[in-house]
Specification:
Pfam families: malic, Malic_M. With about 650 residues, the protein is an alpha/beta fold. The protein contains 25 helices and 17 strands. The protein binds NADPH dihydro-nicotinamide-adenine-dinucleotide phosphate, pyruvic acid and magnesium ion.
């Protein structure tokens, strides 16, 4: 008997299941499946694509699965999936469009071991080894998931160089996804600096030379007119979150072109580990429009288009085709997170698509929310309300003006003062000095609201002396700009100066934790974008927090998904800030922390998700009805667990 792709069927004596048996989407659960697609109608060669069982088949106890459960004729229910019912885009395709005929077959043996979504390595049980043609393909020992984690951590710790640890983690993600996530979830404090900042920055810089297996989708200028087709090449069909970059402002490292892919990949692994979004629902994308980085253009191992960046209409058209294709392929409720775009595109993209798509700019909005949370909790240490403080930023780009606006919005809500008034409590410095009214005409549009009445001030330290801020925020991407004089000046003005050095990676941090505590004589309340080890100063150990949007975006995204939100609203950002600030306990304050440790991040994310979802319902932006009674419990119940599934 021949299957649809021409291979013969072999019946397994234990399971009674044929190896390549074609089945409907209502497969029995917990069986690894391979979805094959035949593109005969556009004369492409046939191929088999391994996909996660999660995307095609109902998972027991997973609320997200409700949506694919249509084949029994039941009315499809709204679910975590965001109500995207037309899984393969067949219903929404017009008659003259090509569609993809899918069928599902069972993965086994050698290919099962090489399918990261289903591979368990040595943890395959004896029964599974019999049932799935694994005998002889594995050594005799059977180990459990916990022992695999222990061994993997042991292996990773053998590497002294962070980039080698990064590579070991990426290899694991490509080999055994559930082990990767269990490892990351259980060792989050230790592994976050590896899969995320600072190491991911170095990985992006060297992405070409360390490149092995491609991760995510690469869409380049050459793909103009074919973006929808490219999205269909991705094996998973039920995508809930896309993180997309064009690589022009990777952390504080600048234009890394196509090699920025490390960022969407890293961010999405946090969506899963920290926020519980299923890996199969996450899609990292890099839009390659070229690079203006000479080093990349001259690097023989560079993986992207070897040309200068497209801009203007050419850029806008490609982005528009992308945004349209995403909505067409994944529906209204797929979350598109813009990440590490340069500010000359980031603000415009957010403005253009915020009313038509579910979009979120992590650098503008996520950063704002995490910093506001830190400030709300810092008030417990320094006293007063937000309105009693003065804020000075070094850096007036996405992060700086995004944070500034959310602070002003929160003060406006608290005091009923108009936004134009509350903005006056916030001052920003860019590469040309203090932003003041006399500079208005030459300022980029996102800086204009911050052009207050003041004489020009060139030097940052002079701006501190004249503005007398209580809070200093670094968002410049320029390392070592909070000099000894800067920190000492802040400390002479404030008993407890709040100093946030947000720039990433560590090399770009405005100052180190050690410098902040030493130069402030141990009085600074300090947090940084990339982590620093605890510092001992004058016999006291100071633990600095990590002011990083990683606290916000995973829970924020989960909140949008569980409520079926259709748009992002600023009030959701405020709700996320409050939820995060509420998670800081007296024990944390006693250590000088203004953020909770990452160890409890899943619990924190569930609280953020619940507050964000609650706000979506309140604002009438939620489409998943009725509203669950206990949103925290519901958020927790929706979270992906990396536990191995049992295969019959
Ligand atoms: N911790 C976190 O969660 C996050 C951290 N970040 C970090 O923040 C940094 C900035 O990101 P983003 O706002 O998107 O970048 P942008 O490029 O949008 O903005 C950078 C700003 O800094 C100014 N600037 C640069 N160098 C100097 C300098 N030497 N002195 C004074 N001002 C300077 C620029 O001035 P001009 O406008 O005149 O060019 C610009 O206003 C990056 O390092 C990024 O990694 C970003 C997001 C989140
Ligand atoms: C953290 C982050 O998003 C950035 O540095 O760009
Ligand atoms: Mg970013």
């Amino acid at each position: 008997m021949m299957s649809l792709n021409g291979s013969s069927l072999v019946k397994n004596s234990v399971t009674g299941v044929s190896r390549t048996q074609s089945q409907s989407l209502r497969l029995p659960v917990r069986r690894p499946v391979v979805v094959s697609m035949l593109n005969n109608n556009n004369n492409r060669p046939e191929r088999n694509v391994s996909v996660s069982v999660d995307s095609a088949v109902k998972e027991v106890n997973a609320p997200v699965a409700a949506e694919v459960d249509e084949s029994d004729g039941k009315k499809p229910s709204a679910s975590v999936g965001g109500g995207v019912e037309d899984v393969y885009g067949e219903d929404s395709a017009t008659e003259d469009q090509f569609i993809t005929p899918w069928f599902v077959s069972v993965a086994s043996g050698y290919s099962l071991l090489r399918d990261p979504h289903h591979n368990k390595g040595l943890a395959f049980t004896e029964k599974e080894r019999d049932a799935h043609y694994l005998r002889g393909l594995l050594p005799p020992v059977v180990v459990n998931h916990d022992l695999q984690v222990k061994k993997m951590m042991h292996n990773i710790r053998q590497y002294q160089i962070p980039l080698q640890r990064y590579q070991a983690m990426m290899d694991l993600q490509e080999r055994n996804e559930r082990l990767f996530y269990k490892l990351l979830i259980e060792n989050v404090e230790e592994l976050l600096p590896i899969v995320y900042t600072p190491t991911v920055g170095e990985a992006c810089q060297k992405y070409g030379s360390i490149f092995k297996n491609p991760q995510g989708l690469f869409i380049s200028l050459r793909d103009k007119g074919k973006i929808l087709e490219i999205l269909k090449n991705w094996p998973q069909k039920k995508i809930q979150v896309i993180v997309v970059t064009d690589g022009e402002r990777i952390l504080g490292l600048g234009d890394l072109g196509c090699q920025g892919m490390g960022i969407p990949v890293g961010k999405l692994s946090l969506y899963t580990a920290l926020g519980g979004i299923r890996p199969s629902a996450c899609l990292p994308i890099t839009i390659d429009v070229g690079t203006n980085n000479e080093k990349m253009l001259n690097d023989e191992f560079y993986i992207g288009l070897r040309q200068r960046r497209a801009s203007g209409q050419e850029y806008a058209e490609l982005m528009n085709e992308f945004m349209t294709a995403v909505k067409q392929n994944y529906g209204e409720k797929v979350l598109i997170q813009f990440e590490d775009f340069a500010n000359h595109n980031a603000f415009d993209l957010l403005e253009k698509y915020r009313t038509t798509h579910l979009v979120f700019n992590d650098d503008i909005q996520g950063t704002a929310s995490v910093v506001l949370a830190g400030l709300i909790s810092a008030l417990k240490l320094v006293g007063g309300s937000l309105a009693d403080h003065r804020f000075l930023f070094l850096g007036a780009g996405e992060a700086g003006t995004g944070i500034a606006e959310l602070i002003a919005l929160e003060i406006s809500k608290q005091t009923n003062a108009p936004l134009e008034e509350t903005r006056k409590k916030v001052w920003l410095v860019d590469s040309k000095g203090l932003i003041v009214r006399s500079r208005l005409d030459s300022l980029q549009h996102f800086k204009k609201p911050w052009a207050h009445d003041h004489e020009p001030v060139d030097k940052f330290v002079d701006a501190i002396k004249t503005i007398k801020p209580t809070v200093l925020i670094g968002s410049s991407g320029a390392g070592q700009t909070f000099t000894k004089e800067v920190v000492e000046t802040m400390s002479s003005l404030n008993e407890k100066p709040i100093i946030l050095a947000l720039s990433n990676p560590t090399s770009q941090s405005e100052c180190t934790a050690e410098q902040a505590y030493t130069w402030s004589d141990g009085r600074a309340i300090f947090a940084s974008g990339s982590p620093f080890d605890p510092v001992e100063y004058n016999g006291k150990v100071h633990v600095s927090g990590q002011a990083n949007n990683a606290y916000i975006f995973p829970g924020f995204g989960l909140g949008l998904i569980i409520s079926g939100a259709i748009r992002v609203h600023d009030d959701m950002l405020l709700a996320a800030s409050e939820a995060l600030a509420e998670q800081v306990t007296q024990e944390h304050f006693d250590k000088g922390l203004i953020y909770p440790p990452f160890t409890n991040i899943r619990k924190i994310s569930a609280h953020i998700a619940a507050k964000v979802a609650g706000k979506a319902y309140e604002l009438g932006l939620a489409s998943r009805l009725p509203q669950p009674e206990n949103l925290v419990a519901y958020a927790e119940s929706c979270m992906y667990s990396p536990k191995y599934r049992s295969y019959r």
